[in-house]
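Protein 1 of 2
SEQ + STRUCT:
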Amino acid sequence: MPEPAADPAAALACALGGFAAFESRPHLAVAVSGGADSLALVLLADIWARARGGRVTALTVDHALRAESGSEAAQVARFLAAHGIEHHILCWQGPKPAAGIQARARAARYALLEGWCGAQGVLHLLTAHTADDQAETLLLRLRHGSTLHGLAGMSALVERPWGRLLRPLLGCRHDDLCAWLRAGGTDWIEDPGNRDPRFERSRLRAEIAAGQGGPGLYRLTIRLGHLRRADERMMVRLLARFVALHAGRARINPDFAALPDRLAAGLLGRVCLAVGGAPRVPVETALARAQARLRAGRATTLAGCRLNPGRNGILVRREHSRRRPVPDAGVNVRPERTAAPLGPGPFQLVSPPDGPTYALSDSDSDPGACMLSPPPPTGPAGSRGTQWRGPGQ
């Protein structure tokens, strides 16, 4: 990430150019709350897409956490309609949590945004995270004991099963985006939650502003990003050397014990990330606790995984309680070799053309497999399920 830029249009064009691999007529989805950052992003992205024969669709999530949220979403809709930008309001429905509301709202927001993109076949979702958000993320993760992987902040590009999440404004400051909007005579909505001292990120934002530590934090985040990329290159080599991946599980070579603690912790964290499907690498304290138990020859849990040391190394598998339930009693695998996803990760269930419908369940005898059980009486003969182990197994 370069030093934060004062020209938002140039910064966005540079960032999107670096992402590359857009369609000849790109269709971009943009998350728009109505705040300054997201309004600037959708207007800038619209200019960029139109210049390439493409278009932008704006998506506003109404969390229904404040009485004003519905009218604010409608206000955003009117503003974007005046600029000829397609807009959809996605509503978070159902009861709202009493605690951890910001984290739950964030999860709901991304589920709605990504679900819309997947359903509509839109491959690029842009969010308006800025250099200020990056600095706040660094401090948050530092306070929570994050590893180097986390301290490098948010990634500008994240590959997702439906497409990719892009953060093209990480090279811009919030104040510069506000100045750009003012120059164009554009007003925005101020979310009172951004200043609510009940929320940790809001308190951090105030501390950064009071201490004027932003520029130093921006530079630190950039340096940590360079370090993380170097660390990732090393980790790829270590993973190839010490780890064997199978469907639903992994085995770590016993020679792994000779690695320095920091490298061993990084390898453990990434293996658990792949097997357990956690959203991020475990924090240092959790990694250190797991390493201590493994050195003592004791089984342990980490990031939704169970780790069992033995003569042949460490077997890593997802905790039984974390396995996702099958959506229906049976997964209807239709003709044309339809593929059904099997939890987070690259594994899929595929049937031949005209194949039967199979019921899916965990295999208690082999935690790395699932059971495909044809429902009687239409399924193939035999009542025992067939183990499926993923591609190439």
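Protein 2 of 2
SEQ + STRUCT:
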Amino acid sequence: MKLRPLLITLAVLLPAAGAVWWLQRPAPAAQSADARLGQRVADPAGLASATRVRLKAQGKTTELARTDDGRWTVAAGDTAPALPADASRLTRLASDLVSPKVERLVTENPTRIATLELDSSEVAFLDAAGKTLLELDLGKNADGGGRFLRYGSEAKAYLARLTASIDADPANWRDTALVSIKIDDIASLTFAFPGAAPVVVSRPDAKTGWTSPATPAGQQVKTATVTSQLTNLASLRYTQVAPTLDPGVIAARILTRDVTLTTFDGRTVKLALGRAPEIPKPAKPAATPPAGDTTPPPEPAEPPAPPRPVYAELTDSKADAVLSAAAKTHAFEIGEWIHTGLPSAAADLFEPVPAPPAPAVAPALAPTEPPAAPAPVTAPVSVTTEPVTVTTEPMTAPPPPAP
């Protein structure tokens, strides 16, 4: 028997068997006695009673707070007011913390704990009195799966199959909806145009077409344009916020485009969309051609200036309390394409009435030879031959003449 293949096989199998034993080894008595083992990473009841959530990661800190009516907000910071929070994202985070269980106690050795990167991210849930309900430090991922974690200031590190990731950027936690109305609930739109009367398009119900008292003769409301505006405005979202005293925000109010949405139940939402006018570029001095050359040197083309930001001011008859408070100190920046997509004049809302379809015309037949004249009909001739009777009188010789 050859020993070399046997030794190679043993060299492969022994480390694998050792790894299996290590993973399935019985827990030490001290670890088995740890009350956290086999329990959920987070207690569902404790998270449900939380009114504040604090997130830390990558040098950033974000705090979420629950209002008296149960809504979650992103707490005000140095550059932004309190704004509505994306509650669905917080629900996912809570679910990621409640689902897994603590699998094992990794170490109580401070030196080894320091190697697990447990200071990289933190999440804490607090109640209305400021009492900490849960504080977790999340470390790096383990080589065999799972993630290291520590409860608050405890000198213990555990392992659990956590999939949660901590994002402490406040902008990523905002619910950026400025307007949230179902298109079928909108009864009319009012468009304001500079130097012209506003145009109202309306409908009696969601299944009827749009009409307007301002429709020119021979035209109709352009449904495609109205539908496009509804898609953009009924679910309008903001991207950033800026202080109302910012020079760009002040300049954007010089000329605004106003649109008002009215629902069937009487709610009105007025949007004033403004953009600061472009700053004219200073005239360049004429280039001096070199001596003896009459052709001016070509000038390098300047890149186009980025579009100025567009800000929206919202007036809602059913105002959101959090957004209304934020609007007192900050303006909401929206996508530039929302502003450029607005109709520039009343004529953009109408189109000619299509001509009625022409009556159907029977297809022309190809010319054909005239049909041949019918042969004359000859009445049948009936020939009846009656027997002919010929009567011959007896011939007599005349008497001889007298002598």
